[in-house]
Design goal:
The protein is mainly beta. The protein contains seven helices and 31 strands. The chain starts with 5 loop residues before the first helix and ends with a strand. The structure holds CU-O-CU linkage and copper (II) ion (2 copies). The site of one copper (II) ion (CU) has 6 residues, from loops.
């Protein structure tokens, strides 16, 4: 029977009217239950004596999703996948087996590790039935933060992530050691959307949904529909959020309740920043602190409507109302018009008031760039492919290097969204995180490390990237994973310094 730790206990107690004994017997039953993920407590694998080692199997399993049977893809039978936790300097070994019926591989999104060999290499292919051991080392100076892992085999990424294949990869470090952060109760929220038919199978998207990027109407947090999280009056809650949906954007608001942003994709900010809303594009992460400073009642974590552009070309005028119901009934543009409830925050008990941290981790100022490059993001007709999604008019070809850079340099990349359909494209770069310098010429207010940045229709975003530590080929791409599968990915070759 799995051991129940204090955090899980607190979580279970908070989740509703469960006592300790009920909670542990629910976990006990889990072993006999045909549903692998009866309770959404993704297994935790932590590193030990400098090494994180585990077996990981991708397969198709029935799991329980919001209380219903669902035939999803999963890692070790869990949706979301087991959470991995390591520290700077640790050696990672993942004995991976592909028991899907299609090729796959693993990507470690946001980690600053080598892209070559059996490491964070998106060019690897693990055929059905085969295994591979991933081996890499987390650099000693790696920033602590909320990273994640998911499949990255070109052509199958959207389908496999939409099937449920995604898990957190946490690097513990300096942010976790700040006393005020240590005093906070920590919760992880993996946001995934699913589309299931009446028998619990994943619905296949139609052509239009693929062009927009597939979305599902079932919104889950850690595989649960509207889970509850508890906060004591006076206490601090640290929410670590991951948008693991292939295309859905989450425009988050905690109804009538303030929160503070403390970290983005690549780790901590310099200090907490109060926010009313937070937009998380696919692939992005954020960490929030919530203070138990309001009237003790319930507050809903909402997903507000967001229009991510696109599909104007499918019928101009008839889309004018922004609702865009196509004749065949599928929703276009904004896929929702009302706020949806993702989770509920409940005040429970009280503690003596915990302060917010004043300072977090300083974010370094990067030197001026040696090179400035321009990337045009667009949908285009590609020879032999029909409609493709491209960078500078070119669709992905694993054999072609699109961009060459030198190790130990800093570059500015100008990401220009020239999509005629004004569709949003979240841009993601592997291996090296960057800082956003400006949007449409407006300096970015808070300096932060990012690996995924939203480039809205018509927008120009300037990012600054230091290329450090690792040589070799890797990729950048749109994190609307259907767009990546449809060609919106480029090969980056990081070459030895001259
Ligand atoms: Cu999260 Cu290249 O991906
Ligand atoms: Cu990535
Ligand atoms: Cu895109």
């Amino acid at each position: 029977m799995p051991k129940i730790n204090r955090r899980q206990f607190l979580f279970l107690s908070a989740a509703g009217a469960v006592t300790a004994s009920v909670a542990s017997s629910a976990l006990g039953q889990n072993n006999r239950n045909p549903f692998k993920s009866q309770v959404s407590l993704p297994k935790l694998h932590t590193s030990n004596h400098g090494s994180l080692e585990l077996d990981l199997e991708a397969s198709s399993h029935p799991v329980s999703l919001g209380g219903k049977r669902a035939y999803l893809f999963s890692y070790n039978g869990q949706v979301p996948a087991p959470r991995l936790e390591a520290r700077p300097g640790d050696a990672v070994r993942i004995h991976f087996t592909n028991n899907l019926t299609q090729p796959t591989n693993l990507h470690y999104h946001g980690l600053h590790v080598t892209p070559t060999g059996n490491a964070d290499n998106p060019f690897l292919e693990i055929p059905p039935g085969e295994s591979l051991t991933y081996k890499f080392t987390i650099p000693k100076n790696h920033r602590s933060g909320t990273y994640w892992y998911h499949p990255h085999h070109h052509g199958y990424v959207a389908e496999q992530v939409f099937g449920g294949l995604a898990g957190l990869f946490i690097i513990r470090g300096e942010l976790d050691e700040i006393p005020e952060i240590q005093a906070a109760k920590e919760e992880f929220l993996v946001l995934q959307d699913f589309a299931l038919d009446g028998s619990g199978r994943i619905q296949s998207p139609n052509h239009m949904a693929i062009m927009m990027g597939r979305e599902g109407q079932i919104l889950t947090v850690n595989g649960q529909v509207n889970p509850k999280y508890a906060i004591p009056s006076g206490g601090l809650l640290r929410l670590r959020l991951l948008n693991a949906s292939p295309s859905r954007f989450y425009r988050l608001s905690l109804e009538n309740h303030p929160f503070y942003l403390i970290a983005t994709d690549g780790g901590a900010l310099g200090n907490p920043v109060e926010r009313e809303e937070l937009l998380l594009a696919p692939g992005e992460r954020a960490e929030l602190l919530v203070r138990g400073e309001r009237e003790p009642k319930q507050y809903r974590l909402l997903n507000l409507p967001y229009d991510r552009g696109g599909m104007g070309m499918m019928g101009g005028g008839m889309m004018g109302d922004g609702m865009g119901m196509m004749g065949s009934g599928q929703m276009m543009r904004s896929s929702q018009t009302n706020p949806q409830v993702l989770a509920t925050l409940t005040y429970r008990g009280s503690v003596s008031t915990l302060p917010l941290p004043q300072k977090l981790i300083p974010v370094e100022t990067l030197p001026e760039p040696r090179t400035v490059r321009r990337f045009e993001l667009s949908m285009a007709m590609a020879p032999g492919m029909g409609m493709a999604f491209t960078f500078n008019g070119t669709a992905f070809d694993p054999k072609r290097v699109n961009t060459q850079v030198r190790l130990n340099t800093v570059e500015d990349w100008e990401l220009v969204n020239v999509d005629p359909d004004r569709m949003d494209h979240p841009f993601h770069l592997h291996v090296n995180s960057f800082q956003v310098i400006s949007r449409n010429g407006e300096p970015e207010p808070d300096r932060a490390w990012k690996d995924t940045v939203l480039v809205r229709g018509g927008e120009t975003v300037r990012i600054r990237v230091p290329f450090r530590d690792f040589l070799g080929k890797t990729v950048y791409h749109c994190h609307i994973l259907d767009h990546e599968d449809l060609g919106m990915m480029g090969v980056l070759d990081i070459q030895a310094p001259t």
